[in-house]
Design goal:
Structural class: alpha+beta
Oligomer: single chain
Strand content: 15-25%
Shape: globular
Number of helices: 26
Length: 826
RNA sequence: GGGCAAGUGGUGGAAUGGCAUACACGUUGGACUUAAAAUCCAAUGACCGUAAGGUCGUGUGGGUUCGACUCCCACCUUGCCCACCA
């Protein structure tokens, strides 16, 4: 049978069918076995698999197949993150139901996945929009509600005044609604928040325990949490006549600069702005300024280097450390949701304050000088001096270092009662309300006083209704059947919450549902969750490094806190795979540079595509797609195919090392070394070198000659061919099943035990030693592996070529790295 | 601005203190063929040399070391993430 694409297609279908009917990849619930849980981030049903998916899943499949052959009980499931905006947009555009649109795409993608030969346990298939899944979203929400971890708060949304609907950020294009083209407005509405900040310290501290996560992902999470140590300072607020009217707190990480405060500035959204200007001269001016801020999106307003704008409030603050009275301002560069929403401004030592002071002609006073400058003058400065230095004009703190002053001043302020050391985080609570249809309905109803109550758990799921209209405000509000909740006991009707949940909620716990995906009575059984968790190997794109992984970690910690799971962290080991590029650019539909996996499978089959993807680059690196290079993978598989077809002969002989000649020994050592290396490389994600090792072995096996007079050689050949086939199973599973069968086996290669290697067979009698003179290669000698250093030295010095370079000069040193290298220093 | 990652032949990459460029793609030459494809064999960093062989060579400059792609310092370039976070 020749190695043609026609044959390959038949073989791939044959074994996919075999695996399915023999339930080869179904995970066992036998908790006494050693488990291994491999998971890829479940995809959004976008319609078609792209090469990034193929790469992601191929990597996972190699790991799953490897662990299975090592004897582990492997859980390797797949599902879909199937709620979300695109389905709803498509519904509006094409007048189809989001469910129909989504189901169609899911089915198409599952069919594609099956052609890749991925070893998923399809009995655990799940998707977010099934009632059996999202009912547990609602259940979790209610548990959080009971624990006081959800609350309502006003928050700004993008409002399209023509379509009468809330827009997601990505639906706002140049400040206009994506469909109506109308100018988008900001509106404040009540929305649901989850108190992820209740777990901030755990989320931060436990990053240190994640030894098998990439450092950069942990760094990104740390930065996102953004812990900073500083001081909260209390100011009295005075009117123009010097009468105290209120108090204000600011947060700073630079208490060493407090003697340089020249003004205090509030975020425009700060409620005190409106309060304090009421009835004063500047009132209208300030209110207009605040209103202009609302129009601008936060993204437009923020950004380093942007010109800063502000207005004086006409009231003043008294600096508690020196009694100095400074003006209060509001400015666009201050953020309401960080610190206290108010900042003490020190133009001399903060670049933002410096630029602002220059623009509005505010004074600048220096309180820290560089160590090598006797006096730093404000008028000489062209930028703020932000480095550490020596304290000046700071009363009793003059002369000490500014770093030391941070501690000294904050201690002193605490004693005086004028300030307090505080810790501030960048991490904010998670806004989960979406004024959307295609998501999990928030299981809440409101009593006549407007107080929220959770829907009783027995009433779950709160199902998505079908009698909805799109493009007329929040879709769930258009549903007659949904809008009102009827109390099952009293028959009274109440208004339902019509917002749905952020889809990040769905993806924050799906990996636990897989452990017991068909459970209809509870979210999952604790036994199953505790057996399978944590996920041993999680694989996905770096784009999820922050939000998805942080939310998942939060859910796991929440589940632990209510006794549902024992693990503190969901993902033991994380691999972030690199992107697939074509001509140095990310493949995308808009650029028209997409390589369709279906086309590659048609031409080469799944095995060649998988092998190329794994061989072309290490998994974490970017991968440059190359239509030509895939020929190499095809050729390699073809050579193994014909090697087995042409040269495998059943024999009654055994592999007998006592009969080995040098060729036998060499190839036997090589196969043992390959078993060792391929196993190690797979565990270290070095699939490319694992494959190259198999290619080298294959090249040598091709040259290895059997001899009818020495029948043990055929036995050795058979042994090596079998081992190569097994080592290749994770990479090219279909062809290996076929070859395994050709090699006379009736069992399934995918469930065969991974080969073991013989440590003794790796030992060498003779080694080649590199001989250097002054670090430069001059000769190589073959010597006994256990040669003594003195004996080796003599051999080295006797080499003609070495003699020329030593040239009678005295030998200063002789360095011998056993079995590898000798260096003669003259 | 901050953080992280990377920089090696014509190309993807290998080597993480010890033979730089494994393996593969491509290219060139050869075998097979009426021919082509497929397949197989050989060559393939640059320069000098008929050859043996030599010199140079892993972004740039310095350092440590018997020995540096690898470690240290400074810089350049590219990519990614965060970014007016007080």
């Amino acid at each position: 049978m020749p190695y043609t694409i026609h044959e390959i297609k038949k073989i791939e279908q044959k074994w996919q069918e075999y695996w399915r009917t023999h339930k080869v990849f179904e995970a066992s619930s036998d908790t006494s076995r050693e488990k291994y849980y491999v998971l890829e981030m479940y995809p959004y049903p976008s319609g078609k698999l792209h090469m990034g998916h193929v790469r992601n899943y191929t990597i996972g499949d190699v790991i799953a197949r490897f662990r299975r052959m090592q004897g582990c009980n492997v859980l390797y499931p797949m599902g879909f993150d199937s709620f979300g905006l695109p389905a709803e947009n498509a519904a509006i555009k094409n007048n189809v139901h989001p469910r129909a649109w989504t189901d169609q795409r899911m089915n198409d993608m599952v069919a594609q996945m099956k052609t890749l030969g991925l070893s998923y346990d399809w009995t655990r298939f799940l998707y977010s929009h099934s009632e059996e899944y999202y009912r547990w979203n609602q259940w979790i929400f209610i548990q959080m509600f009971k624990q006081g971890l959800v609350y309502r708060k006003k928050a700004l949304v993008n409002w399209d005044p023509v379509d009468q609907t809330v827009l997601a950020n990505e639906q706002v294009i140049d400040g206009k609604g994506w469909r109506s083209g109308a100018e988008v407005e900001k509106r404040e509405i009540d929305q649901w928040f989850i108190k992820i900040t209740a777990f901030t310290e755990d989320l931060l501290a436990d990053l240190d325990k994640l030894e098998n996560w990439p450092e950069r992902v942990k760094t990104m999470q740390r930065n996102w949490i953004g812990k900073s140590h500083g001081t909260t300072i209390n100011f009295d607020v005075l009117d123009a006549g010097g009468n105290k009217i209120d108090e204000l707190q600011t947060f700073t990480t630079r208490p060493d600069t407090v003697f340089g405060i020249e003004y205090v500035v509030l975020a425009p959204e700060h409620p005190k702005c409106r309060e304090w200007v009421k009835g004063r001269d500047h009132e209208q001016d300030v209110l207009d300024f605040i209103a202009s801020m609302d129009k601008e999106s936060l993204i437009d307003r923020m950004g380093e280097g942007r010109e800063k704008n502000g207005r004086p409030l006409g009231v003043f603050a008294r600096n508690p450390v020196n009694g100095k009275v400074v003006p209060l301002w509001t400015a666009d560069y201050v953020l309401m949701d960080y610190g206290t929403g108010a900042v003490m401004a020190v133009p001399a030592h903060d670049q933002r304050d410096y630029l602002f002071a220059k623009k509005y002609n505010l004074p600048i006073s220096v309180v820290i000088r560089p160590e090598d400058v006797a006096e730093l003058k404000a008028e000489d400065m062209t930028a703020a001096y932000v480095e550490p230095g020596i304290m000046v004009h700071s009363e009793q703190f003059d002369g000490i270092g500014s770093t030391e002053a941070i501690t000294k001043i904050s201690e002193w302020m605490e004693e005086q009662g004028t300030g307090e050391r505080t810790i501030t985080y960048r991490l904010k609570d998670w806004l989960i309300s979406r004024q959307r249809y295609w998501g999990t309905p928030i299981p809440i109803y409101y009593d006549n006083d407007g107080n929220p109550h959770p829907v009783p758990e027995s009433e779950l799921p709160v199902k998505l209704p079908d009698d909805i209209e799109f493009g007329k405000g929040n879709p769930l509000q258009t549903s007659e059947s949904f809008r009102y909740y009827t109390d099952p006991d009293t028959g009274k009707q109440y208004r339902r919450e019509t917002d749905t949940m952020d889809t990040f909620f769905d993806s924050s716990w799906y990996y636990i549902r897989y452990t017991d995906a068909q459970n209809r009575n509870e979210i999952f059984s604790k036994d199953m969750a505790n057996y399978w968790l944590p996920v041993d190997q999680y694989i996905g794109g770096i784009e999820h490094a922050i939000l998805h992984l942080l939310y998942s970690r939060f859910f796991t910690k929440f589940f632990k806190s209510i006794g549902l799971v024992e693990t503190e962290e969901p993902f033991f080991r994380l691999l972030t795979q690199g992107m697939v590029l074509l001509h140095g650019e990310v493949m995308s539909k808009s650029k028209g540079n997409v390589v369709d996996p279906d086309d590659i499978i048609k031409k080469y089959g799944a095995d060649s595509m998988r092998l190329f993807i794994l061989f072309a680059a290490p998994p974490e690196d970017q991968l440059e797609w190359n239509d030509q290079a895939i020929d190499g993978a095809w050729k390699f598989l073809g050579r193994i195919w014909s090697l087995v077809e042409k040269r495998y002969q059943p024999t009654d002989e055994f592999v007998d090392p006592s009969k080995f000649d040098k060729d036998d020994k060499d190839i036997f050592r090589e196969i043992n070394a390959a078993v060792k290396k391929v196993g190690e490389d797979i565990q270290n994600y070095k699939f490319n070198t694992a494959i190259s090792c198999l290619m080298i072995l294959m090249n040598n096996l091709d040259k290895y000659e059997v001899d009818e007079a020495k029948p043990h050689k055929q036995a050795l050949f058979n042994h090596i061919a079998q081992t190569v086939v097994l080592l290749l199973v994770p990479f090219a599973p279909h062809m290996c099943e076929e070859l395994w069968e050709k090699l006379g086996h009736s069992d399934c290669a995918a469930l065969t035990t991974w080969p073991e290697f013989d440590e003794k067979a790796l030992e060498l009698d003779e080694v080649e030693v590199i001989v250097q003179v002054n670090g430069k290669l001059r000769a190589r000698v073959t010597v006994a592996a256990d040669i003594a250093e003195d004996a080796l030295k003599e051999i080295c010095l006797a080499q003609e070529h070495v003699k020329t370079f030593v040239d009678g000069k005295p030998i200063r040193r002789f360095i011998y790295v056993p079995g590898k290298l000798a260096n003669i220093v003259v």
